[in-house]
């Protein structure tokens, strides 16, 4: 009844290789249409095979003949200057339009100094930009922020234009304001203080650039020096014609000239003690603003002290007369 168990051996299982699926009818149609379109674009028939692309042979460039170097002093044309030394740039155009708009609306006795100051600043900026690339530039001792333009024209005309614009506003309300004349005279002194500070800094730059031997730089220095001298003549004529001279006029002139000396000392300190932190124009703007601000504080403090002393002296005299 019992049969011995059989051991059945099965053959080893080998997986069938995967056969890639055939593309569908839609995919085949898309492929044929794309190939026919490509052949038509290449100029062949719709059933032509793709054209054979011929390899491009590299061609070695033909060397240009080298020109002999021109001897020094032969009068050969110099290479073109950098864009920063061009006469007309976007920054200078904007500053010129702003200053011209303010000067045209101001009285001639106040607009003429601003025009002379702007001309001197433009000449100094051109000279500074053209001498910046020279290795023997006298202004290399002042290390400015790398990559920034000098901005001397912008720094020299910003505060005077602001003061002059404020004077134009006050001149329109003088007939209706009883205290307007006093405030107008005060702002007029502030305008001259700012202008003298900027002109003194420009003269400081001109004094450092006088050692340059470049013809273009020397021409710009000549025009800049002429503008600064004309500005000083205008300043002296303004105070001589407005006042009768005397101690008060001399005191005002000395007060304003002290602003110029302080601005020169301050910008020299800024450029030497804080290297690579500002440009020439930014240093000029900061130094003139600080000098005018602290000069105004000092003038107000001295005037209040003088009034208090004068009031005390008057009260003591009045008490002595009563005692007698």
Automatic annotation (TrEMBL):
<feature type="transmembrane region" description="Helical">
    <location>
        <begin position="110"/>
        <end position="128"/>
    </location>
</feature>
<keyword id="KW-0472">Membrane</keyword>
<dbReference type="GO" id="GO:0005789">
    <property type="term" value="C:endoplasmic reticulum membrane"/>
</dbReference>
<feature type="transmembrane region" description="Helical">
    <location>
        <begin position="221"/>
        <end position="241"/>
    </location>
</feature>
<keyword id="KW-0808">Transferase</keyword>
<feature type="compositionally biased region" description="Pro residues">
    <location>
        <begin position="62"/>
        <end position="80"/>
    </location>
</feature>
<feature type="transmembrane region" description="Helical">
    <location>
        <begin position="148"/>
        <end position="169"/>
    </location>
</feature>
<feature type="transmembrane region" description="Helical">
    <location>
        <begin position="189"/>
        <end position="209"/>
    </location>
</feature>
<dbReference type="GO" id="GO:0004168">
    <property type="term" value="F:dolichol kinase activity"/>
</dbReference>
<dbReference type="GO" id="GO:0043048">
    <property type="term" value="P:dolichyl monophosphate biosynthetic process"/>
</dbReference>
<protein>
    <recommendedName>
        <fullName>dolichol kinase</fullName>
        <ecNumber>2.7.1.108</ecNumber>
    </recommendedName>
</protein>
<keyword id="KW-0256">Endoplasmic reticulum</keyword>
<feature type="compositionally biased region" description="Low complexity">
    <location>
        <begin position="1"/>
        <end position="10"/>
    </location>
</feature>
<dbReference type="InterPro" id="IPR032974">
    <property type="entry name" value="Polypren_kinase"/>
</dbReference>
<keyword id="KW-1133">Transmembrane helix</keyword>
<comment type="similarity">
    <text>Belongs to the polyprenol kinase family.</text>
</comment>
<keyword id="KW-0418">Kinase</keyword>
<keyword id="KW-0812">Transmembrane</keyword>
<feature type="transmembrane region" description="Helical">
    <location>
        <begin position="253"/>
        <end position="271"/>
    </location>
</feature>
<feature type="region of interest" description="Disordered">
    <location>
        <begin position="1"/>
        <end position="83"/>
    </location>
</feature>
């Amino acid at each position: 009844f019992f049969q011995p168990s059989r051991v059945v051996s099965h053959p080893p299982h080998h997986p069938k290789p995967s056969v890639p699926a055939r593309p569908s009818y839609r995919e085949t149609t898309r492929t044929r249409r794309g190939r026919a379109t490509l052949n038509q674009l290449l100029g062949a028939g719709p059933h032509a095979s793709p054209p054979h692309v011929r390899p491009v042979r590299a061609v070695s460039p033909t060397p240009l003949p080298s020109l002999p170097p021109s001897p020094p002093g032969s009068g050969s044309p110099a290479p073109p200057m950098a864009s920063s030394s061009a006469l007309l740039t976007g920054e200078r155009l904007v500053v010129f339009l702003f200053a011209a708009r303010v000067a045209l609306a101001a009285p001639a006795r106040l607009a003429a100094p601003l025009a002379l100051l702007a001309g001197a600043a433009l000449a100094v900026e051109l000279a500074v930009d053209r001498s910046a690339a020279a290795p023997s530039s006298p202004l290399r001792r002042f290390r400015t922020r790398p990559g920034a333009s000098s901005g001397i024209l912008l720094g020299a005309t910003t505060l005077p234009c602001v003061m002059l614009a404020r004077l134009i506003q006050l001149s329109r309300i003088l007939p209706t304001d009883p205290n307007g004349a006093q405030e107008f005279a005060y702002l007029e002194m502030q305008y001259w203080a700012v202008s003298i500070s900027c002109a003194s800094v420009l003269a400081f730059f001109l004094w450092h650039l006088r050692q340059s031997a470049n013809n273009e730089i020397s021409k710009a220095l000549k025009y800049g020096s002429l503008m600064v001298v004309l500005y000083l003549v205008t300043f002296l004529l303004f105070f001589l014609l407005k006042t009768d001279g005397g101690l008060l006029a001399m005191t005002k002139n000395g007060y304003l000239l002290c602003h110029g000396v302080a601005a020169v000392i301050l910008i020299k300190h800024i450029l030497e003690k804080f290297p690579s932190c500002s440009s020439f124009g930014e240093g000029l703007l900061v130094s003139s603003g600080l000098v005018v601000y602290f000069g105004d504080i000092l003038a107000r403090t001295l005037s209040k002290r003088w009034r208090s002393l004068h009031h005390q002296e008057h009260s003591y005299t009045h008490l002595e007369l009563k005692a007698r």
